[in-house]
Design a protein that fits this description.
The complex is a heterodimer.
Chain A lengths: L7 E8 L3 E4 H8 L7 E4 L6 H16 L6 E7 L10 H9 L6 E5 L5 H14 L5 E9 L14 E9 L7 E13 L2 E2 L8 E2 L5 H20 L8 E4 L5 H10 L3 H5 L4 H4 L6 H12 L5 E5 L4 E11 L10 H6 L2 E2 L2 H7 L7
Parallel strand pairs in A: 2-14, 4-5, 4-6, 11-12
Antiparallel strand pairs in A: 1-7, 1-8, 2-3, 6-7, 8-13, 9-10, 12-13
Helix pairs in contact in A: 2-3, 5-6
Chain B lengths: L6 H13 L1 E4 L6 E2 L15 E4 L3 E10 L12 E8 L4 E5 L13 E11 L6 E9 L2
Classes of the chains: A alpha/beta, B mainly beta.
Chain lengths: 343, 134
């Protein structure tokens, strides 16, 4: 897909909670080696909705757009606090953009944030709305001791997309989605934790979709890996995105800036978008960025952006949030993640 | 007082809790929270609803060790009077901070958090709290 009308990022925000648990602490309890050094843990009063709000407010403030000018709020998450009742309405109400707004939740495992971005970009590019918010947020759930328990993190990222050329920090060029029916990870109604097909989540799921979406975009747009300054992949761990980069012919220097899984774990729908926020915080004018998400079930969105001359004039709070780290042990982690049931 | 679950109450209080909307006196310029009709400083009526600044300082605080219903399991936590830039005072919970690390005068900023679940199957109440400024 090529965006023929101008649409891009006028503001963005990222959110990572204050708490961390070290991989070695999870290993102490459950025995296996941790694939990340540490991961983010939500506070006891945080969920995907509160994190979505924090990222969205930052995006709105950075863009300098008034709340009533926002025409869409889409929240992508697989961990909404309610099974039935949208998060988007609470986020929109708290931001002050209600009631004249297209607001809804999207669910597609770790991919829903980038899909929200493509949908909002479509609304903006069509001229239906002037500005819209796309948010990816998750408080990822994992069965204690499961492989996912070593990496399931918490965080959010939000992008205020706009058609006002003068406001844009980065312009969206192309998007390419690659989706198949692949049962690599799922959670049935009423179940507390997701299940997954172990090693099946690698080749037929993550790598096939990520590589196909990235290749599809580059073929359609006539671009090659060396045309990009940075590439951000969905990051369930540190190894997968590095391997995806290798398969596609990207150098490690192109991946490193946007690769945060070793510090904050897998933030699911927020993962590739927090990486994009990190890259935008450090990018220089005229640089091209490729973002490739992945969500189980399964699908990937690839999006290419080019930064404008004003990128870097406004930055997110991400570096300060990453520097703020309060370590918890596994017992406090279990309490804050609501893994302990009292009465 | 018996506390009962109430979705309408959560709805009625929502916007005020969500957005930090205060009142500004057209006469003396005084800022108050929450928004009210009459200025407590000069007695003028017709305060204008305004979005208050999100940063301020802790004026005083108390540690809650015996929490009311819906806040169990969070103790000990801190409630504080926060003076926002411009002078409005807000009574709110502090978050992301241990009680022993709270100081009078510490700089804080507003965040959006869960207040409580009315029950495991009930409405979740959200609103503004303050964290140490980062």
């Amino acid at each position: 897909m090529k965006f023929t009308a101008t649409v891009g990022v006028a503001g963005y925000g990222a959110y990572v909670p204050a708490f961390r648990i070290k991989g070695e602490e999870i290993s102490r309890v459950w025995g296996d080696a941790a694939p990340v050094r540490e991961k983010s843990v939500p506070g006891p009063d945080e969920d995907s909705l509160t994190m979505a709000y924090e990222a969205a407010r930052e995006a709105l403030e950075m863009a300098g757009v008034r709340p009533e000018e926002v025409g869409a709020v889409l929240v992508g998450s697989e961990s909404p606090p309610y099974a039935v009742k949208p998060s988007a309405t609470v986020v929109a109400e708290a931001l002050g953009v209600t009631p004249r707004v297209v607001a809804a939740d999207l669910e597609f495992a770790c991919r829903a944030g980038t899909t929200a971005m493509i949908l909002v970009a479509g609304l903006v590019a069509s001229g239906a709305i002037r500005h819209g918010l796309a948010i990816g947020a998750d408080n990822a759930q994992a069965r204690p001791g499961d492989e996912l328990d070593y990496t399931a993190g918490a965080g959010a990222a939000a992008f205020l997309l706009s058609g006002d050329r003068s406001r844009l920090l980065a312009v969206l060029e192309h998007a390419y989605s690659f989706v198949t029916d692949t049962p690599d990870f799922w959670r049935r109604e009423g179940e507390s934790f997701p299940r997954h097909a172990h090693r099946f989540t690698g080749e037929p799921a993550y790598f096939r979709h990520v590589v196909s979406a990235a290749r599809g975009l580059m073929e359609e747009a006539g671009l090659k890996p060396s045309d990009f300054d940075y590439v951000v992949f969905h990051q369930p761990n540190v190894r997968f995105p590095l391997r995806a980069a290798q398969l596609l012919g990207f150098r490690e220097e192109q991946v490193k800036l946007g690769l945060l899984a070793g510090e904050i774990g897998n933030t699911y729908a927020a993962a590739s978008l927090i990486g994009l926020a990190r890259v935008l915080d450090h990018a220089k004018p005229g640089q091209r960025i490729l973002v490739v998400s992945f969500g189980s079930g399964a699908g990937s969105d690839a999006i290419s952006l080019v930064t404008t001359e004003v990128v870097g004039s406004r930055k997110s709070s991400l570096e300060r949030l990453l520097a703020r780290r309060a370590y918890v042990d596994y017992a406090l982690y279990a309490k804050q993640k609501a893994l302990l049931r009292v009465a | 007082m018996v506390w009962v679950e109430s979705a309408p109450r959560a709805w009625r209080e929502g916007t005020r809790r969500y957005r930090l909307i205060g009142g500004k006196c057209p006469s003396c310029g005084g800022l108050v929270y929450p928004h009210r009709q009459v200025c407590p400083y000069c007695g003028r009526e017709g305060l204008e609803a305004v979005a208050l600044p999100r940063r301020g300082r802790v004026v005083t605080y108390a540690v809650v060790r015996n929490p009311p219903r819906g806040f169990e399991g969070r103790e000990p936590y801190v409630i504080a009077v926060v003076e926002l830039e411009g002078g409005a005072r807000v009574l709110a919970q502090l978050t992301d901070v241990r009680p022993e690390d709270v100081r009078v005068g510490m700089e804080v900023e507003a965040v959006f958090r869960r207040y409580r679940e009315q029950s495991p199957s009930g409405v979740i109440e959200y609103g503004v709290k303050f964290r140490p400024a980062i």
